């Protein structure tokens, strides 16, 4: 199978599952729990997260396609396993943070994602250097996500029970 054929399957699949993960967990603004949290001053606008994750999932889909296409490459099996493990962690992060309100566990998960992705990137360097380079924006974004999550945690020590926005309903 050609690299293009792998990409035509992998890119939409990675993007679709990432989108579903975010949607079912109520990720981003519009989530009453998240909206009620104090945010750091460097919090980007909400639209940037959607744009960034779209680009990152496209890059991840391309990396997976390159890995699947690299038949016979040494460490390919280990790299595929690491890729799928870090991708699963990525898909679990929105439900953990936005759905279950587990900021501490979310921070631990993003730290694990960074570690897995660093090892994966080193393996990719020996398999397909272009794939390794495509992981660099993802690594940078994971670092930013860790900083953002840690800051939200520090600003909201009681985040699991964050106050909901005041209701505008009048009760008589």
Can you offer a commentary on this structure?
The chain is mostly helical and 172 residues long. It has a single domain, classed as Up-down Bundle (Ferritin). The chain is built from 6 helices and no strands. It has helices at 3-24, 32-36, 46-69, 76-99, 103-127, 129-155. Helix 1 runs antiparallel to helix 3 and helix 5 runs antiparallel to helix 6 (129-155). The longest helix has 27 residues, at 129-155. The chain is elongated. The mean pLDDT is 92.
Quickly count the domains.
1
Give the strand tally.
0
The percentage of residues in β strands lies in under 5%
CA distance, first residue to last residue: 68 Å
Briefly, what CATH class?
Answer: Mainly Alpha
Helix-strand string: HHHHHH
> In angstroms, what is the radius of gyration?
18 Å
**Which percent bin holds the helix content?**
over 70%
Going by helix content, strand content and strand pairing, the class is mainly alpha
Uncertain stretches: none
**Count of individual helical segments:** 6
CATH 4th-level superfamily = TspO/MBR protein
**CATH fold category name:** Ferritin
Largest sheet: none
